[in-house]
Amino acid sequence: MTSALSARNSPGVLGRSPAVGINPIRPGTDFFHPFPESRGTRQRHFFAVTDGAIVPVRRPNRRLERTKPAPPSWFSPAWKVSPIRFKCPWRQKLISSRHPGIEDQKILRHGLLGAPLDGEGWTPHRTLDTVTVIRLYRRHHCIRLMSISLMRPAVEKKAQCKICGADATLFGVTDFSKSCLEIHGPQKTDIYGVPVYYRRCESCGFLYTEFCDDWSQHAFSKYIYNDEYVKVDPDYIEARPHSYANMLSSLFESSMAELSILDYGGGNGLTARLLSEKGFQAASYDPIADKDKKRPDATFNLVTCFEVLEHTHDPLDTAKQLANFVQDDGIILFSTLLVPNEIDALGVNWWYLAPRNGHISLYSKEALGHLWNQVGLNYFSINSGYHMAYREAPAFARHLFVNASAA
Fold first, then answer.
1. Distance (Å, rounded) from C-alpha 216 to C-alpha 406?
2. Strand pairing partners for 56?
3. Domain limits for position 252
4. Do 346 and 264 have their domain in common?
5. Residue 268: is its pLDDT beyond 70?
6. 71 or 278: which carries more pLDDT confidence?
7. pTM exceeds cut of 0.70
8. Alpha helices (H) in 44-194, listed in sequence order
């Protein structure tokens, strides 16, 4: 591949065209400046066409014998913001307006500038203007650029587990349209064409995706918890809140007078309203549904968190928030379905692995234990769906431990 050094000793001359803004180039001899209006700058940059290759060079003055090759960092990202080197207004025009399509920035970033331009239309005796040169560049390197981006993995093969910090390798990929409705069998849904990669920690078994890690609350509301969400989770509006309220009422009816309850992630707040109607002191707070509502300042001896942890992209932050809400003699009663033992056979076909429902974090017992220990709480699993986190087991919840041990 011809380098800028070979252009240094070329006996070329700077060609001009009668047409304003276009410089003809003769391969092997000429230097050209894409936009003559920037020639008044103290430090000017040129391309040289030598032996069928385009090479960047810097020309400090009009004496071509003193032309020096461009430094390696000339096209680096730092060049664009450097107050010393940002003296090339034609380059921004070249990228932003004159030549749509594959950006010249991509060509330069992949180190393709200076590669031979072999092929149709490139002859030693043909005079080419700047536009034609870039078009030839695109024509002959488009396939190469595409192959580079196609072969580049969409996500890294290994990452650090969000809970324990061990290696988390790729587990599988599914379409964003996959929902929990698959518990009733295969569903005929429109494929979005948006791949969602899941990872699994090699140590604690935490199964998660990084797909939503940089989403804002607005993005979650727009793409997941929108008006279409009821189609993939029809029970969340009424059926589940009534079920949770009846379950809590039966579990803690004898301790009703001493309990203060916070339903964290309660959505429309129906569970808390139903408990209040039954005589409990209950409140609801949902970080997404109640984004304009003030966060509760009080602490509670019973914090419920039903079907929430699988929806968070930052489990540790959510666990810290819950730990701050619960009193020292209280418990966090939460629900999320544990990763089954046969997950290797099920793969991404497990019905609970559902990005359209917002199920982006799925836990094993080891992962939950490690998560709650990091925020100073103990962890106890009642069954595969319901769990507790606490500092000291309170008297009003001891029957839950007994019933779980008996089961």
1. 44
2. 47
3. 195-406
4. yes
5. yes
6. 278
7. no
8. 77-81, 89-93, 104-109, 130-151
